[in-house]
Amino acid sequence: MDTAAIEGLRLEDGAEVMIRAVNADDAPMLQAFVRGLSVRSRRFRFFSALVELSAAQLDRLVRPDRFGLALVALSGRSEDAAIVGEARYVVDPAAVRDAEFAIAIADEFQRKGLGTRLMKLIVAHASRTGVRRLFGEILAENQTMLEFARRLGFGVRANAADHRTMIACISAAAMTSTVAS
Description:
By secondary structure, the chain is of the alpha+beta class. The chain is built from six helices and eight strands; from the N terminus they run E-E-H-H-H-E-E-E-H-E-H-E-E-H. Strands 1-2-3-4-5-6-8-7 form an eight-stranded mixed beta sheet, with helices on both faces.
């Protein structure tokens, strides 16, 4: 997927969403998306009970690093579209071929195939651009996300640096089979 391309997706319940790269104009929609997440979903995504993003956080999320990819899923017509999902990866500056992923799906859009499609898109992009290891930190209590990562082919292990989290990791070789499935 070209980072500027738009892809339509019909979810398992028949709802339709559009997936495209995030851009700076998405700031108000992204803030609304974060505010609309349940307390639990915000904590699972940001590891805190924040209510909204700070100006610096929001700016960083809508102006992603050129060596990564940030996607949003939009529901509704263009004039009243709302972000219902976001997934991204950023290249680790300490290890240029390693990248960290993050994903959040609006509560009412979870378990409908959107998270799977967004993850497959970022995994495919990471693989094509030479990322050799894609990883993400997941709260140990977030069993749904840990199982989701395993289903996508990620290995999951304890995080020695933070007992509250687990590390989900997939190698370049395994990325190819994740994208194909």
